[in-house]
Amino acid sequence: MNKSNIQILDKKSLNKSKQSAKITGEVLLALKQFIKPGIKTIEIENMVLAEIKERNSKPAFQGYNNYPFATCISVNEDFVHGFPSDRILLEGDIVTVDFGVIFEKMYSDSAYTYPVGQISQKNMDFLDCVWDSLYSSIEQAKPGKKTGDIGFATQEVLLRKGYNPSAELFGHGIGTILHGEPLIPNFGTKGTGETLSSNQCIAIEIMASQGNTKTYTKSDGWTVVTQDHSLTAHYEHTVVVNDPPMILTDCELWSKKPSIIFK
Questions:
Q1: Alpha carbons 24 and 90: distance in angstroms, whole number
Q2: What is the pLDDT of residues 59-103, one digit of tens each?
Q3: Are 171 and 120 in contact (CB under 8 A)?
Q4: What is the mean predicted confidence (pLDDT) over 3-10?
């Protein structure tokens, strides 16, 4: 592990990170009313890009490793890194919008899976469970805890309901860079992995499937899809390690489970 990539925030950088994350949260909340059946995923991209620029900040993803967009928009069986396109969202779909913001050189990163119109109770229960697993995982983001403690908390909630955490996709450190150390797994064993430090900034992101989590990548070179085309969901917060942990990307959208927010 490259220890120089571990993101420990001092008071000044923490304040800037809070401002960056506040912008991310505001845009995610605005998407709640924007996402509906009949819109194209490229319209979400354009809306997010406009909202970010309006807040005097920059998109964190656009240009990163030559990624061409401000958002990753993943629909149904798309696990992560979906390209915005002319794809039209249909009633009953679920869509994950994942994006980050740069504000005064500090990065934030968050993702939320939205129901499109009315979805089945089965799929809403799935979203609730992945949401629950995120918050259970965040509870482990305390000084002295290990990355394996976070991964164990993730898988414990998901496996109990019959869902599967990704073994291929990870959270990460974040702060002055978008992707730093350590990797934050969606699975793990208690007391193993890298030790977390006070004021360390990490992105905890839960990526789970209703079926098999083995994936392939589409011809665009980015969009990762479940091999069995099972439904996926993805919830992510930027978090500062503390006791209790500090969720930077929090907003009203996260105040209750998806089934309550979208009832």
A1: 25
A2: 999 999 999 999 999 999 999 999 999 999 999 999 999 999 999
A3: no
A4: 88
pTM of the model: 0.97
3-state SS assignment for residue 55: coil
263/257 Cα distance (integer angstroms): 10
How far does Cα 148 stand from its chain's mean position? 18
State the architecture of 3-261 in CATH terms.
Alpha-Beta Complex (3.90)
The size of the chain, in residues, is 263
Structure tokens belonging to residue 249: 């990307």
Q: Which residue has the tokens 């998901």?
A: 158
Locate all alpha helices (DSSP H) within the chain, ordered by sequence.
11-34, 41-54, 121-138, 147-160, 258-261
In whole angstroms, give the CA distance from residue 113 to residue 106. Answer: 24
Q: Would you list the DSSP string of 65-86?
A: GG--SSEEEEETTEEE-PPP-S
Q: What is the pLDDT of residue 3?
A: 66
CA distance 263 to 258: 8
